[in-house]
Amino acid sequence: MPPSPAYRPDPRFADLGPEFADVVAPAAFPKTLLRFRNQRAAAEVGLDSLTDAEWLDHFARFHPLPDNQAQPLAMRYHGHQFRVYNPDLGDGRGFLFAQLRDSSGRLLDLGTKGSGRTPWSRDGDGRLTLKGGMREVLATAMLEALGVPTSRSFSLVETGEDLIRGDEPSPTRSAVLTRLSYSHIRFGTFQRHAALGRADLVGQLLGHAIGVYYSHLSGVENPAAALLAAVADRAARLTAAWMAAGFVHGVLNTDNMNITGESFDYGPYRFLPKNDPNFVAAYFDHSGLYSFGRQPEAVLWNLAQFAGALTAVSEIEPLEAAIAGFGASYRAALAAAMVRRLGVVSAGPEADIDLANAAFRALAEGGERLRWEPFFFDWFAADEARALSRPRADLYDGEHFRSFRALMKTRTPDRPERLTHEYFQGIEPEELLYDQIESLWCAVADRDDWSPFTAKLAAIETAREAWGFQMNELAG
């Protein structure tokens, strides 16, 4: 069956040439068991009409989509990993499979994870654990529900191999994931060519980035500084969205940040159980470099490395100016994100910052007993009577909570009809905490029972509909 009329192929990355990616072949998997297909996302790009057999042909065996990229491309990049430069990176277990337009005309990538070895695999096997694939499906579903700019898990196929991993019980089951993202061009993509002394290739990549993703910047006096400023603005909004969602990415390396401002490539992420600036997601982050409270600092540091790569084609002063406003942009974006999460109408920048600060102080005052997500669930749309009828009402009477409540009383609910959704009639919100994910995996690992995983995704979808956030809304 051909794709629907909404299918609009537009492979653009290959135009950059062989210095930017390597042609690779996908792995031949012994099994192809479809575990997840994102039908809503597929409809946006005209692939919802594919049968399951056709789906597996494209997203397990990776036969090219019609009129699209003829061969998979493993993208080349470098990057700072925990602030140590690594020139031996690149797509080691994934590739760019296709590019296509959505209904708004915006270009999207279909990229893979666990699709086999490439020239950049080093000592890796090029595979993905089924548990890792499940975790990414769950992460992207929850972040999308909260309006956070994110890649979306498009397909998850179990592939029938036994994988050995040193940090989890092995052998473990294997999978290949396909994700839909606005770009896989990383900060580290620029870093690679700058480190190799190829200013010409940095310039070529800069021109591609502006022409494809930031066409409104065409013809500016300093394209490098203009692109950096635009990317910094999106990065500030993304970081603010993480913070309002209580999300800890875990591995904020420069090869894990892209130029279009979506988070992607989820490894040891966590959602906060409670407010804790020192909370870390990765067990190997011993210094807390990427802890919850240090994420804005990490993103700004990464932007500085991106700026360093762009010095190959620009004087340094305009680049420094381009990221100098990150702090102010981030604070404004965080206030806006918190206001949206609380379901109230903006009262202006200063008042919104005051409300956001009051909310963070109240969350801290709630201590061990007040979980992150229930706070926003209870106080959504400034309905104090509803909040005080929840099981956590006794936590809402401290000094900082009284200040927070006083500010909330001055706010107008934003789309208060959302409170009539069945989701808000319950006692507890939808959460995605570590123990919950482990429980979902145990059902699959021990009994091959996928029903809890499916039910969890359905519950997250209900929450998404109730919150009514649009993709990227929290980022402005």
Portion in helices: 25-40%
Determine the number of helices (DSSP H or I, runs of at least 4 residues): 15
Strand fraction band? 5-15%
- CA-based shape: globular
Low-confidence stretches: none
Q: Which series of helices and strands comes N to C? A: EEHHEEEEEEHEEHHHEEHHHHHHHHH
Q: Please tally the β strands and state the result.
A: 12
* Biggest sheet architecture: 6 strands, antiparallel
**C-alpha termini separation:** 39 Å
* Rg, alpha carbons: 22 Å
SS content category: alpha+beta
Please, what is the average pLDDT?
96
From the structure above, extract its key features.
476 residues; alpha+beta; 15 helices; 12 strands
Question: What does it look like?
Answer:
The chain contains 15 helices and twelve strands. The chain is of the alpha+beta class and 476 residues long. The strands form four sheets. Strands 2, 6, 7, 8, 9 and 10 form a six-stranded antiparallel sheet that branches. The radius of gyration is 22 Å and the shape is globular. The model has no long low-confidence stretch (mean pLDDT 96).
